[in-house]
Structures are given as C-alpha cells and as structure tokens.
Design a protein that fits this description.
Layout lengths: L4 H16 L7 E5 L5 H8 L2 H6 L8 H12 L6 E7 L5 E8 L15 E8 L8 H16 L4 E7 L3 H9 L3 E10 L2 E11 H7 L5
Parallel strand pairs: 4-5
Antiparallel strand pairs: 1-2, 2-3, 3-4, 5-7, 6-7
C-alpha cells in the first residue's frame, strides 16, 4: 500500500525540520548519514544480538553494509534515517528513523492525523546508558512542540522486552499488535502510540 500524499507531506515537513534544527541530547546529536559512516554502520549492523532484537540478520561484510548505507542516503523513499553520533568523538553509534507505516493508513483514527512512526538501532556497547531514551524525549519535544504532530508511533518485537520497557516509560501506550512475514518467519510487533494531548499533559511545564 502506497502512502497518501497527506502522509508524504507530513514526513517531509518533519524530516526537513530535523535537518534545519538537529535533535541533540547531552551526549549525542542526530544528523544525516554520510559515506564516511560506513565502518561505524558496519560495526553495529554486524552485532548478532542487536540485530536479532531488531528482527534482522547480522550484516556479514562491509560491502553489504555499504549497500545499506546507500539505501539510507537515498532520499527517494519515504523513510528518513538519521545517524546518532557522539558529541565528543563524532562516532556514529546508531540510527534513528522516521517514516509512516502503511498499516497506519488503514486505521480510520490515524489516517488523516499528523503523525510519524519511529524506529531505532543502537550499538550494543552503548546499551543501558539512557542514550536512546534521551533521544526519544528530545524527538517528542521537537515533534509535538515544533512540528505540531498529533501522534507518534513506535513499535517493538514481542521478544524485545527492553525496547518495550523503554517505550512504556516514555509514556507510550499499546495501540495494536501487527503480525507479518519476514524472511520466512512470522513476527509480531507491539505497536505503541503517544498522543500529543497526553504528552502535553504529562509535560505541562514545557511551554
């Protein structure tokens, strides 16, 4: 199912905003990927446990990672991937992607509402340090306060309890289960949602 023109317009607005006003936290900042990020990308895409929890097969060679990098840098598709880079060294330790899953278009509640879907990957070495939680919090502020989005969607595989726990702590609520086939496997994702009204109520001190 193709995305509607409405959805494409929202995605472009949010992507442009993230480039014009880059998201950052105390430790990292988000920016578009570059060719020089290849080795850093290969490092975390080749990690077995990280890729398992992401529902993917580990990348086995730098050349395979190069193909993924070329796809990431291609702006013709509806998913925009940003590099998560350490402020201190510039090393890329993950990616943060915005898109809009086609099945959202099938939901009458969400079809004509301004919202995006988020996904992320983080190098195993930097797990459990609060890095991605801080990125999500900064992203929520940008999306709800600057981009005037009505909702943000994210999901996690039902076997990835850590990701689910993080999303729940950030105030996201279960919306639906999504089942699909991937590499011959039947996979279930727990789709979460955060509404702008709930975010503003929880963060009422933010103006």
């Amino acid at each position: 199912m193709d995305l509607s023109e409405f959805a494409k317009t929202v995605l472009k607005e949010v992507s442009d905003l993230m480039i014009q006003k880059p998201i950052e936290t105390d430790r990292v900042f988000l920016r578009p990927f570059r060719e020089g990020d290849l080795n850093d990308l290969f490092e975390f895409l080749s990690q077995k446990e990280q890729q398992r929890l992401s529902g993917n097969i580990p990348v086995e060679s730098v050349e395979d990672a190069r193909e993924i990098l070329m796809w990431i840098m291609d702006t013709s598709h509806p998913v925009t991937c940003f590099a998560v880079a350490l402020k201190q060294s510039g090393k890329v330790i993950g990616n943060f992607s915005i898109g809009r899953y086609p099945f959202l278009e099938m939901d009458e509640t969400l079809r004509q509402k301004r919202g995006v879907s988020l996904s992320c990957v983080l190098n195993e070495y930097w797990w459990r340090q609060g890095i991605m939680s801080a990125v999500f919090r900064a992203a929520f502020a940008r999306f709800f306060l600057d981009a005037d989005l009505e909702f943000v969607n994210a999901g996690y595989f039902d076997f990835n309890e850590a990701s689910g726990g993080m999303q729940k702590k950030l105030g996201m609520r279960h919306w639906m289960d999504h089942v699909y086939e991937h590499d011959g496997r039947r996979i279930t994702t727990k789709e979460m949602i955060l509404w702008r009204e709930d975010y503003l109520q929880t963060n009422s001190a933010i103006k």
